[in-house]
Amino acid sequence: xxxxxxxxGPTDVLIEGLYIELRAIARRERFRAGSPQTLQTxxxxxxxxxxxRKREGWESQAxxxxxxxxxxxxxxxxxxxxxxxxxxxxxTLSYTxxxxxxAAAVPExxxxxxxxxxxxxxxxxxxxxxxxxDCRFFAGMDERETANVLGVTDRTVRRWWVQARAWIHNEMExxx
Length: 176
Hints:
By secondary structure, the chain is mostly helical. The protein has helices spanning about 10-15, 20-30, 40-50, 60-85, 100-105, 110-125, 125-140, 145-150, 155-175.
């Protein structure tokens, strides 16, 4: 479904047209967010839909998927926070893993929450770096796709990705 420069139709049409990509993003992030998994993939997509449904005027499919990835990240972090709050003994926070290994491992709820807090701080300092993390880490986009979403070059995305990973790693290490 090709989009014009500015997509002015309802979000429902976009979600229907991009459901397969949304499902892939939600499934990957659900497994990356650790266990116990209280949200199924379809439920995660539905929650993201509730966050995105009122907005219109999407610039492109890539813009929509980037925003969907951010919504999914918020949902997963909120779910991890809720699980931690419901436990009597909160787990001891251990941030010995680097940001890169967090992408490959199944993190604990505390790590997901810490990553969310670090991204929140990063978005205050440099929103572009935080958006690169959303696109690359949470949406699984490659450099070209991320560059398309952000309207920059692949080289800029590579530079921002290195900066964002280093900043998040330092923040998570500092909060030990």
